[in-house]
Write a structure and sequence with these properties.
The protein is an alpha+beta fold. The chain is globular. α8 crosses α11 and α11 runs antiparallel to α12. Bound molecules: flavin-adenine dinucleotide.
Length: 466
């Protein structure tokens, strides 16, 4: 490894035709450029290579490799574990690469590697179309997609990766390749769940669906009803039509409109609904079996809205700059004993932004087999996330403890692994468990496309050694 005392300067000298911007510690916008969504991480990269195109990405990768510097890939910068940056290394920042092109006839959207979902949803909604993403519009397309992509449209349209048709990728050796069912199909398989392990994706091509107006919003019950509501939800959801997504949550009512003042900050349990259709009667009929089985809620808010509105509904509650510590697990069943554990921790949230979500993994997500993509937990029925969140760094210990204790208490009831996009840095065994039987094949594909583990600032799949 050759030493580089001022990588930004060295990069400027060596990357003469770099089209984007090179930002180093001496630049006035360095602090802004290095900040991550999760303020728990305060990483100081040697160089932020804000790339304008795939050629820039290839140059930045080559530069980092030539100087023995670690590389992080930054899409939307939302990663909970802070994996969009790296101390003393090179950040390949894709935030200038945000083109979104809808092909209405082909029913596809081509998306730059640095886009956030809000930009994609806004563009596709102009045509009455959508592709599945998550539940927050500020999340990056890159990280969310490559890890899988669970969200409001999962039951009807599958995971984000189930709608990924093609990706353009800069590999560790600088080569620019396409991955699809016809070109580099092994890479295409690995990208669908394998995260940023295989290269830098500079553009994604997604399939679009007829999703325009949706009936969406929350139903809240008092947190003290947690066990009763969760049992009813568990029994209800598998029989609901695919159009109806509804994730269970423990949380608190946000302290602002449109929520009634008397409910502000009240701890609750409930369901956040998204019925993928405009028919209010059909939506109400789909929700009715759950509502009929339970006492009157504190609030029942689903209403017609454009799809991007529900995608952005949590943005104000969770802006960049909060402290986040979260744990996750895949879940097959929620036996009554596990329901009681949930009810206990749900009632003990240490700060109002703390939350637990159970994202449904069924419907269209179950149409794809466990070995068909890298995302192996197709038999799971929920992705559980235990998110400790608060703006005040002084509360980090409390939110971390709640998240860890909650996850560890329920882990015996889990399917074993976790959704990689909702993990912290939890070690190699946890990554292996999260890919299950697909790990060995991933390690082989990693050895083919990134034998030196150049892309290792991620939930790392280690190249198989001979
Ligand atoms: C508030 C919040 C809400 C969330 N909601 C959801 C949700 O509803 N559903 C869901 O599935 N997930 C959700 N997530 C998790 C989210 O999917 C992950 O945090 C994801 O890593 C974020 O992607 P990003 O591009 O913003 O991250 P970044 O921090 O930019 O990148 C994270 C990692 O992704 C990889 N990466 C990113 N872009 C690329 C690229 N173009 N090419 C190659 N590798 C790349 C890199 O390995 C990088 O280390 C949420 C996260 C937060 C913080």
């Amino acid at each position: 490894m050759s030493s580089v005392s001022t990588p930004a300067l060295a990069a400027q000298q060596q990357l003469g035709s770099f089209g984007g911007r090179l930002i180093g510690p001496d630049d006035s916008d360095y602090d802004e450029a290095r900040s991550l969504f999760n303020a728990m991480f305060d990483k100081r990269p040697a160089l932020i290579a804000r790339c304008a195109n795939a050629g820039d990405v290839a140059k930045a990768v080559a530069f980092a490799r030539a100087h023995g510097l670690p590389i992080a890939i930054r899409g939307g910068g939302h990663n909970g574990a802070g994996l969009g940056s790296v101390d003393d290394g090179v950040v390949i920042d894709l935030s200038l690469m945000r083109d979104v092109e809808v092909d209405r006839d082909a029913r596809t959207v081509r998306v730059g590697g640095g886009c956030t979902w809000g930009e994609v949803d806004a563009a596709t909604n102009e045509h009455g179309l959508a592709t599945p993403s998550g539940i927050i519009s500020t999340t990056g397309v890159g990280g969310l997609t490559l890890g899988g992509g669970l969200g409001h449209l999962t039951r009807k349209c599958g995971l984000a990766i189930d709608n990924l048709l093609e990706a353009e990728v800069v590999l560790a050796n600088g080569e620019q390749v396409r991955a699809s069912a016809d070109e580099n199909p092994d890479l295409y398989w690995a990208l669908r769940g394998g995260g940023g392990n295989f290269g830098v994706v500079t553009s994604f091509l997604f399939r679009l669906h007829d999703v325009d107006t949706v009936i969406a919003g929350p139903t809240f019950w008092p947190v003290e009803s947690g066990a009763e509501v969760l049992r009813a939800y568990r029994d209800f959801l598998p029989n609901a039509p695919r159009e109806l997504n509804g994730f269970f949550l423990f949380g608190s009512v946000p302290p602002g409109p449109p929520f009634p003042e008397e409910l502000h900050l009240r701890p609750v349990c409930g369901v956040v609904w998204c019925y993928a259709g405009a028919d209010e009667e059909a939506a109400a009929a789909a929700m009715a079996p759950l509502l009929d089985a339970l006492p009157e809620p504190l609030l029942h808010g689903p209403a017609p809205m454009p799809h991007p509105a529900i995608q952005g509904a949590f943005d104000g509650v969770y802006p960049a700059g909060d402290q986040w510590y979260w744990r996750a697990d895949f879940v097959n069943d929620i036996p009554d004993e596990a329901v009681e554990v949930h009810a206990k921790f749900g009632a003990e949230m240490p700060t109002w932004k703390c939350t637990m979500h159970l994202y449904p993994i069924d419907g269209a997500a179950h149409d794809v087999g466990s070995a068909d993509t890298a995302w192996s937990y197709r038999d799971a029925t929920y992705g559980a996330v235990f998110a400790g969140v608060d703006p005040d760094p002084a509360n980090v210990d409390a939110i971390r403890r709640w998240s860890v204790d909650y996850q560890e208490a329920l882990h015996p009831y889990s399917a074993g692994g976790a959704y990689v996009n909702m993990m912290m840095d939890e070690g190699q065994e946890r990554v292996r468990a999260s890919y299950g039987d697909n790990y060995d094949r991933l390690a082989e594909i990693k050895a083919k496309y990134d034998p030196d583990n150049t892309f290792r600032v991620n939930q790392n799949i280690q190249p198989k050694t001979a």
